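INFO  loader      accepted 1 record
INFO  loader      residues=108
INFO  predictor   begin
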Amino acid sequence: MTIQPAKLSDPAVRAFVGAVNAHDRDAFLALLAPDATMSDDGCERDLTDWIDREIFSSHGHLEVERESDGGRALVANYANDTWGEMRTAWRFTVGADGRIARFETGQA
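INFO  predictor   done
INFO  writer      dumping tokens
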């Protein structure tokens, strides 16, 4: 059973999942701190290149299975047109301003 995005605990993570699933790049970028960083499977990535390739040009979609750490850690089925569907883990660092300073993802 999946958790509906609107029921996710952390407001920034809730908005992140909503922007990914709506394919709304502008809303997604508005959630990020100006110097936000990310990693994929433990490797640092260029955030803009990665989100364009892995989320927006390939129609990424998250179905959250569970959350922990106050909603800032997720296990989700992630699917896109490039890789198909995979089980993934996501961890978020949210700044005092409520914007995402870092996210880390990888296969779960």
